[in-house]
Design a protein that fits this description.
- By secondary structure, this protein is mainly alpha-helical.
- Helices cover 67% and strands 4% of the residues.
- The protein has eleven helices and five strands, in the order H-H-E-E-H-E-H-H-H-H-H-H-E-H-H-E.
- The chain has a three-stranded antiparallel β-sheet with strand order 4-3-5. Strands 1-2 form a two-stranded antiparallel sheet.
- Residues 17-33 have low confidence and may be disordered.
- The site of protoporphyrin IX containing FE has 26 residues, from helix 3, helix 4, helix 5, helix 7 and helix 8.
Length: 337
């Protein structure tokens, strides 16, 4: 009897051992460390390496969606996740470093002859409205666009996923809808100021003499100097490039295929980064970089001495126009308060 009980115990123990071994083996099979190199997922990865594309069949009408992976898609993802971030970081941090260094070395460009206390109209109300409308749209577009490039990396770790989602959703709405007044602003800027922004010989001379910004010279300039003309063409051409590429992205696959969409995304991202860097330089010179410059776009008037130092040919022309009763912008000079 005892031997039978002992045999039964041995059998139960053996069964338990076998069961334990089976459980351990199946658990081990689920561990990533014991990936079977011949299983189907690994073979798919090899197939992808060889054929570069994963494509299947579907039931929805959008045939494009049947392609799940393709080489250009991976290149684009790498561009978006890595290359564009580098371009953006170098362009934006680079210009900030240059501006801070320039400010520390040169300081603010001062009004050498002081203020006369008599002002002249530089930009009328319509011009200022268009400028500020475009500028405000640009700033919102820049911040919301940078969120697409850098937000996941820089902001998400600082906030909850829900807060980041809500912010990104609103930023995206702002980016899409403000694109329309921004584009209108760029078109109006082009039409309003194209006459004064055609490069000529005066600009060469102005550049050769450092524009009064590098050094303390005061080379003659018309209504817009060579530096301002550069900014003007960056706004017009850069604005056109981000608008065209941006609308291709907002309205996907209207006359575009996947390659054109990816190219539009790349053009948009690169131009946007360089555009923001250029505008940072523009904002610098219009604020802390040059005494009296902000007033031109703030109040619309500048001190006569400022006009003499920075736009002497324009001042002469305005005075001639006023003398002949043809001032383009109303009263030319008024005593300051
Ligand atoms: C008409 C004007 C514009 C339109 C229609 C437009 C449209 C778009 C669209 C649809 C996207 C893709 C967003 C996404 O992937 O969810 C985008 C991304 C972006 N936009 Fe704009 N945009 C315009 C102007 C601007 C301006 C003026 C700037 C810069 C100041 C800018 C900067 C960016 C940036 C940095 C991105 C992210 C690029 C990336 O990471 O791939 N955009 N834009």
């Amino acid at each position: 009897m005892r031997t039978r009980i002992a045999a039964g115990r041995n059998m139960v123990a053996s069964l338990a051992l076998v069961l334990l071994l089976v459980i351990c083996q199946s658990a081990a099979a689920q561990q990533p460390s014991s990936v079977n190199p011949t299983n189907s997922a690994v073979q798919e990865d090899r197939l992808l390496q060889e054929f570069k594309t994963i494509q299947g069949r579907g039931t929805i009408p959008d045939v494009k969606s049947y392609t799940i992976e393709q080489p250009a898609g991976r290149d684009w993802r790498h561009f978006h996740e890595v290359t564009l971030r580098w371009i953006g970081a170098i362009a934006l941090l680079g210009i900030l470093v240059v501006l801070v260094a320039f400010y520390l070395v040169r300081g603010m460009v001062r009004l050498e002859s002081g203020r006369l206390g008599v002002t002249i109209v530089r930009f009328n109300a319509a011009e200022r409205f268009v400028h500020w409308m475009t500028a405000i749209c640009f700033i919102v577009l820049a911040i919301s666009g940078l969120n697409v490039t850098f937000g996941k990396r820089l902001l998400l770790p600082l906030m909850t996923p829900e807060a980041f989602t809500a912010w990104s959703e609103w930023a995206k709405y702002a980016h899409n809808y403000l694109s329309f007044p921004f584009t209108l602003g760029v078109v109006l800027i082009f039409l309003m100021w194209v006459g004064g922004n055609i490069p000529n010989r005066v600009d060469l001379e102005w550049l050769k003499r450092g524009g009064g910004i590098i050094g303390h010279d005061q080379p003659p300039a018309e209504r817009f100097n060579a530096g301002q003309k550069m900014i003007y063409w960056i706004v017009v051409l850069g604005g056109a490039a981000v608008a065209v590429s941006g609308y291709l992205l907002i309205f996907p696959f209207y006359g575009t295929d996947i390659e054109t969409m990816q190219a539009a995304g790349m053009v948009h991202g690169i131009v946007a980064m360089l555009f923001i860097a250029a505008m940072l330089a523009h904002i610098y010179i219009g604020t802390i970089g040059m005494e009296g410059a902000f007033e031109a776009m703030g109040q619309g008037t500048v001190d006569i001495n400022w006009a003499k130092e920075h736009h002497s040919l324009w001042l002469e022309e305005e005075r001639r126009g006023a003398g002949a009763g043809q001032s383009r912008q109303g009263p030319v000079a008024t005593p300051g308060e």
